[in-house]
Design a protein that fits this description.
The structure holds two protein chains of two kinds. By secondary structure, chain A is mainly alpha-helical. Helix content of chain A is 74%, strand content 0%. Chain B has one domain: P-loop containing nucleotide triphosphate hydrolases (Rossmann fold). The chains are: A mainly alpha, B alpha/beta. The interface between A and B is medium-sized, with 25 and 27 residues.
């Protein structure tokens, strides 16, 4: 997640590195032919052969029609999709709201946890307990506790919206994780950077804000996106509170026709969301490695 | 003459290792002091203590008559007046050269951006770095990075500049450009203390040279005296070793 140290970067390659970082997606490694057409064709051919053979094996298996009917029914897929997409909008809202709050809250938690000095011990202790507890608890348990528990108190002024409590639960659980990611990032910035900032007269807070955190955040973007992929999938847990999002919609469809295709369609929707994000994460890691941001 | 710095009986330990064992040092304004001595003799620690980057165990540090080790003195305010440049440059890698130089004036002194940029450009121009103003540190050579680090310290208009082995991490062919910048500052009257292994440069540019040994300044005098006629046996040994190593 963190680029190589300065020793791993060829100092003379600064220009090449910069040039490489402006090109789209992975650039050919040194020593690899600049015209990879032949290699591409071989890869395409071997892929078609292997996947074709696998496909033939599956489709010609004796019970394939049964499986196809239950899981890959085109009609069921088409029927379910509009409802699923509509339900998915709820998931999208849930994770977008949660992600924005988490980005801020987790950073605050990470900074509070790094406060120096004995005066701040209670704050450090409180924040440490929070992180320990919410990393230990299963997400679904927290969703049940808050989503059913809080409205059940019937205290005036306490919201009863299950969607809201579901998002709050996700925020609490994931902020604990993400704060650790931030903390690792902050600690990965060499102390000499803070010393340089302080020597110029910047206060501790200014050094943190202008020098340490900007470098830390750059380094943790890949692991942070990784946690967000997890969060996006976990939004289906709010279904357990009765929120009709994509997973609950699929359950209803499945129960109506006793066909599992809506679940497969749900899976496809998540794949379409998550795989590009995972590729983006990989690309960011590769780019940082090229830039030698670890120094 | 104004006294820029007075260090009295300074003690500093790291755990059980006592690095500074009663250092006394007085520096007049516009003086250039070179500190020499073997690695681990405490040169860097002394400079870091003067900039309050390391808490001291005992002793007194006065900067222009103000006791900066007294309780109630805010280290941030002291550090505004004292610049320090490190062996490893420590430029901020996520900022352009210009932002590296203007950050402290803008955030610490509250200088308006336009004015901070103007002042930074003037300094970069003066030290031949103006073409690099928009580059990021990873595109600069070591010598350029170190010159930017010096300019960054100068942008705060320090009363005292500490240079901590600023050429030790450089390839030999890049040392010259950094030293000539320091030479220029010396001519301009900047009060400086430099910890260095460049004996020839210390001899040329310093008003006085101090030899650190065993956590004290064992001997301090004008360069011609210290290099030409060292009094202490330890100084003689050290200089003999340096000469034998061809570092003169």
């Amino acid at each position: 997640m963190i680029g190589p140290g300065p020793g791993l970067v060829d100092p003379g390659s600064a220009d090449r590195r910069r040039a490489a970082s402006e090109l789209p997606l992975p650039t050919p490694r040194r020593g690899v032919s600049r015209e990879p057409t032949r290699a591409v064709w071989i890869a395409v051919l071997s892929t078609v052969v292997v996947f074709g053979a696998l496909g033939m094996v599956v489709v010609n298996a004796p019970n394939w029609p049964l499986v196809q009917h239950d899981f890959f029914d085109g009609k069921e897929f088409g029927d379910a999709l509009p409802g699923l997409v509509k339900g998915f909008w709820i998931n999208v809202q849930a994770f977008l709201i949660a992600e924005v709050v988490i980005l801020v809250l987790a950073l605050v938690v990470a900074v509070l946890r790094n406060l120096p000095g004995p005066v701040f011990f209670p704050i450090r202790a409180l924040v440490t307990i929070y992180v320990d507890v919410f990393r230990a608890l299963p997400g679904l348990l927290v969703i049940y506790l808050l989503g059913f528990g809080m409205p059940g108190l019937r205290i005036p002024g306490v919201p009863t919206d299950p969607f809201l409590w579901g998002v709050i639960a996700l925020v609490l659980v994931y902020s604990a994780y993400v704060s650790e990611v931030y903390r690792a990032g902050i600690e990965s910035v060499h102390p000499s950077q803070e010393a340089a900032a302080r020597s110029l007269g910047l206060s501790r807070l200014q050094a943190l804000r202008y020098v340490v955190i900007p470098q830390a955040v750059r380094r943790v973007i890949p692991p942070l996106l990784n946690d967000f992929i997890g969060l996006q999938k976990d939004t289906v847990f709010v279904a357990s509170l009765g929120v009709v999002e994509i997973f609950r919609t699929a359950q209803i469809k499945q129960a109506a026709h006793f066909n599992f295709t809506p679940y497969v369609a749900t899976a496809v929707v998540f794949l379409l969301l998550t795989i590009p994000l995972a590729r983006l994460t990989d690309w960011l890691v590769a780019r940082d490695r090229r830039r030698g941001m670890g120094s | 003459m104004t006294e820029a710095l007075r260090v009295s009986n300074l003690h500093k330990s790291f755990g059980r290792l006592e690095v500074l064992h009663g250092v006394d040092l007085a520096v007049e304004q516009h003086e250039v002091i070179a500190l020499i001595g073997s690695s681990g003799s405490g040169k860097s620690t002394l400079l870091r203590c003067i900039d309050l980057l390391e808490p001291i165990d005992a002793g007194l540090i006065e900067v222009f008559g103000q006791d900066i080790t007294a309780p109630g003195v805010h280290p941030d305010r002291v550090r505004r007046r004292i610049g320090i440049v490190f062996q490893a440059f420590n430029l901020f890698p996520h900022m352009s050269v210009l932002d590296n130089v203007t950050l402290a004036p803008r955030k610490v002194l509250g200088t308006a951006s336009a004015i901070a940029v103007e002042q930074a450009d003037a300094l970069l121009e003066r030290f031949g770095l103006i073409e690099k103003r928009n580059d990021f540190p990873d595109r600069l050579s070591g010598g350029q990075q170190q010159r930017v680090a010096i300019v960054r310290a100068l942008a705060m208009r320090p009363d005292l500049l500490l240079l901590d082995e600023i050429t030790s991490a450089l390839d030999p062919e890049l040392v010259g450009e950094v030293l000539s910048l320091v030479r220029e500052l010396a001519v301009a009257g900047m009060t400086m203390i430099l910890a260095t292994h460049e004996m020839g440069f210390a001899r040329e540019v310093a008003s006085r040279v101090g030899f650190l040994d065993g956590g004290r300044i064992l001997e301090m005098s004008r360069p011609a005296d210290l290099f030409g006629d060292p009094k202490e046996p330890r100084t003689q040994q050290f200089l003999a070793r340096v000469t034998a190593a061809g570092r003169f």
